[in-house]
Predict the structure.
Amino acid sequence: MTTTIAEKPRYTCTLGGAIPSVASIYRVIPILHAGPGCGMQLYNGLNYVAGFQAPGYVGSSAVPGTNTTEREVVFGGEPRLREIVQSSLEVMDGDYYVILTGCTPDIIGDDVGSVANDFRKEGHPIAYTLTPGFKGSTYQGYELVWKAFLDQVVEKPTERNDRSVNLFGIVPAQDVFWQGSLEEIARLLNGLGLTVNTFYTDRQGIEAVRHSSEAALNIVLSPWVGSEIVETYENLFEIPWLRFDGVPIGPTATESFLRSVAGTLELDPTRVDEFIEKENRWAFDQLSKSLLALTGFDFHQRIAVLGDANSVVSIVRFLVNDFGQIPIVAVITDNAPEDAHKHIVRVLNDLEYGEKLKVVFTTDHWEAWNAVRESGTTYILGSSLDKELAQELGVLHLSVSFPITDRVILSHSYAGNRGAISLVEDFFAPAVSCL
Amino acid sequence: MPTFKPVPTRESRLDSFIGYGGTCKAMADGIQCKCLKKMNRSFSQASVCQEWYSLFTLLTVRNSAAVVHAPLGCVSAGTCMNIFNRLGQSVRGENPIKSARWFASNLNESDTIHGGEFKLRQTVKEVDRRYQPEAIFIFTSCVSGIIGDPVADIVRELQEEVRARLVLSQCEGFRSAVWATGFDSAFHGIIQYLLEKREEKFSDLVNVITPLTVGRLDEIEIERLFTELKLRANFIPCYSSIEGLRQTVQAAATTSTCLTYGDYFARGLTDLYGVPHTREVMPLGLENTDRWLRKLAEIVGKEKETEKLIAREHRRVGGQLKALRKLLKGKRVYVSAGQARAVTMSAMAEELGFELIGTTVYHYDDVIAESIRRLAERSGLTTFNVANLQPYEQANLLARLKPDLYLSDEITTIWVAKQGFPTMMIYDYGMNYLGYNGLVKIGEKMVTAMTNTGVNRKIARYSPLPYRASWYEQDPFKYLAPQGGNE
């Protein structure tokens, strides 16, 4: 039976994804036109449980909102929205403001666009997008925000910067390692001589969004998220795009990632080779340093990996290709669209390892656990929710995908070569923590 | 018998509201003359709805499951609440620690047009089949309310098809601006769907209605005091069994460690089952713990023993309090919390020698009217603020008041820390706050909180708050306007 049961879903709703997709851009301020509790429900349900991440410049209880009650439900919410946008402009110190809607205004039929447009006409930097929770998941929230940016914020390019790239596909907070991963990918691309718009790190702010149309390439780090974003960039600004299936982790994936970017942009091969060689040297120096633990504990685990397609693909690929682990089952919990399933299965079976890996697509906690129970795994890499299952099965466990409540995550990440070594360190942690 | 009617909102039942700014004395006078103007905010920030608190109330009940009839965003915070569910088991020494069970009926766009009845039925039946819980708590949401799903009827019919006892909490977020209505919605469900008359009574059993924000170490302190009085505590509803909830009708009395939370259920037990209840707000600090015990003693007929106990406890902690007062004397403190904790914590801060400079309560209802009057008698010119979070008001207030210590929850303290002020979280579930031992423990923790305050000061240099400089020059309560008067 295909089930619609949502037991302990590992993502939130459209609005849930939209809020951090806006608020994580420095000095860009979401204005919620939503029920009285959406803001805190989604902060508690997303950033809080993504390794206890406090809000940045704005977020959590500081996000302006209409907090709609019975009055708006009965008489309409536009006057309240107008009032809150006006006062937000007075109180909140932002470079841009983005109205995001919850379920209620959509069902009662508020014309949010006309409110936003009235303020835009007066010259206020305001965008809007309709993100009712019932429409989809965190990932759709992220995509809707970027489509709104493309429609309302991104400017026509005055010049093309052939050494500048944009990064997409990593959804803040939904990807618990979002910050560290964006930073490490930017570091690697900097090594090739590129400047990188991550938008969400280094206080890049709305200027980076405005001028993102000048980039030479859009890079999407995900097997399925973000297609519409980069296709729109291509249509509007003729920016080509390159999809990498997940975040590159470890020397093999990192080299393959860097080579495909370098190839697309026709970068100087000598410089590219030199940089990759330097990266590989560093990575394998560290991996060889891990040999005491790896061989000392004879640490070859039959791994079960649960989480969003991005995390699962990236982590399985590294642990199998570069670290000698045996993949048993992959459980994809992010509601990846049906037409991406085949591709994800292919990526997960395109490893330097002969046996076929079982791939399960389910958003249902119950089904996910049953798939792991049947697998014969010795090590579960998943969310902190899976700790209980690991205890039941008497196997090791590490939290690597949303939600994570058993460790604090700030700029920690598994991306690139730096991240791969962090993953190796963390991978041994549950085995040695009793010593 | 169940009437299947939703609970009245706090606004209608207790004249609750979420907006006020002024002095404590003006607030107390306004309450007394019943002439307080109810205020709304023409600028507001994100808050919490009653569905959140309804779920929060029931999620840790043993052998149960929670189903929210909503799009799945409305169960997002389940994972967050589960942190505290797991912490609670850890503090109780339980192993293995079990996660709570939370589900959404997962309403999507098409359901908002065609109705979500099928999905609710499917989810509840599946939960029953998977886990065979003793009870399934069902919660409504803005969406289920606005599209008009007849949830009470559905639940009545569904009860015939499942083994678990179904308990409905009608807690549509939009129905109340006061999130505490969610406590009432949850307890209303328990009263309507779970309780029934029992003949046998237990003269030593006291229901202690305790929110999840009051931790196990507080329960231990209350058990210690109860043991001296030869009373048994029935802590409900967190970590309680379904039987523990049903047993409430057999108790000699009901009290609450937070009357904001327990008010509706305590009244219900009195009105429907004749179990009397106390109305003291929280046993936090010397005076409020004394009061809390005395009121209970009156009901269960233990006045003499209680007076002896109180005298003994005062003697026991007297020396430690004296030492703490020396260290804390004259420090300026601001308290921000749920109304019961905020007013008792404010009183306690004064007992510890602090100068109280302000109090923010997350909402107001008459549960704390007396406490405010007492606060105003002692320090009437302090700031009094009613705000369902609204950190922009706090930022403005604190820039003027410059506290030596700010006490609040972990969401609010973040913003205050970024402003550079020393902060202390007062919802630490691994801490004892209540009773006489709690008083000493908090005092010690306050000293620690002010011992090394460098981190907040340094963070503040690089973490501007998201408000315009001009905002700090304006009246912090500028956006409060009488209800209905701002459109």
User: Anything to note?
Assistant: The longest helix of chain B spans residues 303-328. Chain B touches chain A through 77 residues (CB under 8 Å). The CA atoms of residues 334 and 358 of chain B lie 5 Å apart. Chain B has 20 helices and 15 strands.
